[in-house]
Amino acid sequence: MPAFDLIVRPLPVGAPPGELILDPPVPGLNRVLLRRLVCRLRVPPVPGAYDAVLDTGAPLTIFPRDLWHHQFKWQVGRDYDELSVAGIGSTLTGQVLGYRYSFRLARLRVPVELAGRDPKGERLRLDSLVCQLAEAGGPPFVLLGLWGGAFTSRRLAVEPLPNSDDISARLEF
User: Fold this and answer.
1) Which long-range contacts (CB under 8 A, 24 or more apart) does 152-156 make?
2) What is the pLDDT of residue 29?
C-alpha cells in the first residue's frame, strides 16, 4: 500500500501550549499533544508546493482565495465546476478554526497532488476533489477536510515516536 510520512509541527506561536495535561489522567493517556499534521500540495503545472494542514474535523478541503484565485488563477468552467446545495444555492458561509468566511462549493477539474516529508517520495493524486473555494476572511492556508476526496478510502496512522515525547504520522492510500 503506498504511503507517505506527514510533517508533524507544533501549533503556531500564540496558539495554546503544545500539550494538554489531563487531570485526572485517563488510563493510558495523561496528556494530549497539540500538533498540526501537514503534507505538501501541488497543482501541476503550476510551479511550487504549498503546505496543507490535515483536519479530519473540517468537512471539506478549503483553499484560501489568495491561492485558488491569485496563484492558481482557477476559473469556473475551466478549472472547477460550481456546485450548489439544495434549497440554499452556491454561495455559502463557513466557519473553521476561528475563521468565518463565504465560499463557493466546487468540484475541481484540475488534479491536485499530495506529498509527504520526502518531496521525491510517493504522491497521492486527487483528480476530482470536492472543496470550498474561500473568499476573503477564510483561513490563509489549505485545510484538507474529511469528505470530498482527500481522506476517502485512505488510512491515517498516528503513532508515538519511540524514545521521544512526540508523534509520527503517515497517510496510506
Assistant:
1) 154/124, 155/1, 156/37, 156/54, 156/56
2) 84
Please name the residues in contact with 74: beta carbons below 8 A apart, sequence gap of 6 or more.
68, 80, 108, 110, 133
Which residues on neighbouring strands pair with residue 56, listed in sequence order?
A: none
Residue 15 has pLDDT above 70, yes or no: no
Q: Which residue intervals of 61-125 are DSSP H helices?
A: 65
Q: Residue 55 carries which side chain, given as an amino acid letter?
A: D
Give the residue ranges of DSSP H helices in 52-170: 65
Question: Is the CB of residue 5 less than 8 Å from the CB of residue 117?
Answer: yes
| C-beta of residue 68 within 8 angstroms of C-beta of residue 131 | no
Alpha helix (H) residue ranges in 53-159? 65
| Mean pLDDT computed over 34-42 | 94
User: Strand, coil or helix: what is 141?
Assistant: coil
Q: Which cell goes with 57?
A: 474535523
C-alpha cell at position 168:
509520527
**Domains defined along the chain, listed by start:** 3-172 (2.40.70.10)
d(CA 74, CA 68): 6
Q: What is the pLDDT of residue 14?
A: 62
